[in-house]
Amino acid sequence: MVPARLTFVTLGTRDLRGQRRFYEALGWQATDASDDDYVQLKTAGAILALFPLAELAKEAGLPEMSEARGSGAIAVAVNVDRKEDVDAALAVVEAAGGRILKAAEDTFWGGRSAYFADPEGNLWEVAWNPYLELDPRGAPLL
Length: 142
Hints:
Elements: E1 8-13, H1 16-25, E2 39-41, E3 47-52, H2 53-60, E4 75-79, H3 83-96, E5 99-106, E6 112-117, E7 123-128, E8 133-134, E9 140-141
Helix pairs in contact: 1-3
């Protein structure tokens, strides 16, 4: 059996220092395990890790990983507590150097959602879902 849990999301990066600056500008805190070659950022749930792309390929047993990423094949989501928090989060993202891909808008399912890309094109959604309860840390209660 494989446990149904998500403990790490690792983004392969071309510019580790630049990506670290971006996420720290969002207000995210690096853990003590972070150094010049690897970064771990605390979240309410899984740890977000930043790792050089070539090293990630090597660790995964791949000969190489494409530098041309950001296809939107995967999106990581941050759910916020209140509807207006979506817009507020986008302002922070933009000030930190992120690119807004889709402005915040009310959704057909009753929430509010927006999309942005970090400086290397990784796709993120910021969403408020009135049907999703979050615990005090911000992790979803299912």
